[in-house]
Amino acid sequence: MTKLIIRYDPDPRDAVGKLWFDVTAEQFSGSAFFWSDLSEVPRLVSDLRNFPLQEPAIQRWGYNSLEGSDLVLSLGIAQVGRTGSLKAMIELADPFDLSRRLTTSLTTDYASGERLSTELAAMAVQRVGEAVLDGS
Question: Which of 44, 10, 29 is nearest to 102 (CA)?
Fold first, then answer.
């Protein structure tokens, strides 16, 4: 089973904290963070609550262009096929050595996507916590 855990560790002295992506699968795992004030999260939550997903729900964190070697964290979730399955595309990089990166995907469903959006919404309000996306 593949799992993405998104967690937020606030900095008590700053409005910005560490947004972590932890990915585990049968044969590998990876973890990375980027600084965030969670202002991006409400849009991702709103996009995830669309049923069916007409357009992928995508959020990126990183430097400058948020693409290629500037990208540190990325989550994209899209519907695949007509059965209601979702595919999550996940990318993370070491923010101190951007050449070290992990790209993976997992298959999940709308119930798991809704649970993720609920947990992300709570995280954005409380400025602490974690959200989990289970898949295969």
Answer: 29
Q: How many helices (H) and strands (E) does the chain have?
A: 2, 8
Q: State the total domains in the chain.
A: 1
Order across the sheet with 29-36: list the strands.
29-36, 17-24, 2-9, 129-135
Q: In what order do the strands lie in the sheet with 85-94?
A: 57-62, 71-80, 85-94, 97-109
Range of 35's domain?
A: 2-135
Question: Taking a C-beta distance cutoff of 8 angstroms, is the pair 51, 110 a contact?
Answer: yes
| Residues 87-99 as b or e (16 or more Cβ within 10 Å = b) | bbebbbbebeeee
Question: What would the pLDDT profile of 91-130 be if each residue is shown by its tens digit?
Answer: 999 999 999 999 999 999 999 999 999 999 999 999 999 9
Lookup: tokens for 77 = 């979730």
pTM of the model: 0.94
Is 46 in a helix, a strand, or coil?
A: helix
Question: Residue 120: which CATH number?
Answer: 2.30.31
